[in-house]
Write a structure and sequence with these properties.
Layout lengths: L1 H7 L3 H8 L10 H12 L1 H7 L13 E6 L6 H8 L3 H7 L15 E6 L29 E6 L6 H8 L3 H7 L15 E6 L1
Antiparallel strand pairs: 1-2, 3-4
Helix pairs in contact: 3-4, 5-6, 6-7
Protein name: LysM domain-containing protein
InterPro entries: LysM, LysM1-like, LysM_dom_sf
Pfam family, one: LysM
Length: 194
Amino acid sequence: MHLLNLLILPLLPLLTTAQTEPSTPPTPTPTTLQTVISAAAGPAIAAAAAAPSPTQPGIAANCNAFHLVSSGETCTTIAAAAGISLANFYAWNPSVGTGCDTLWLGYYVCTGVSPTSTRPATSTTATAVATPSPTQSGMVGNCGAFYLVATGDTCTTIAQKEGVSVQNIISWNPAVGTGCTNLWWGYYICVGTL
């Protein structure tokens, strides 16, 4: 028994050290986490994983730039500081309301989006893209990307999904009306030009 104690006692500090956990567990840095996610699942998921918290509800799913709302800021001042149009700001942050009356202090809002893959690929050598049917009347002739309007869609939700402004949707599809009150579900509208 004495011999066994002589063999185990010198190893006891090593066993104790190997079994104790560090006082503060290591945490992955956002850059490391984003790199791992990007390699495994693509940039869209990485952008979502890198989103700060808390965010205003309903921000664009493909948001890749954020702004923390401070006291005294308005949608107009945030959009101007980010170098984006107010229309894009509203499209990417629909829960702030059309008059910016529900902008939440201390929450992040979206100030930029990454391109989405929902648009059909266009070729630089192509002069025209086949137009699907049916389309809402008055669509621009140089349309290169289309969207099939579904029940519940609005110009704002379509703009968010397609990464374009509400003003562009209205100008490319004048039949929807200036307030986008004449959007027909089951019809294609233009969401990008050549």
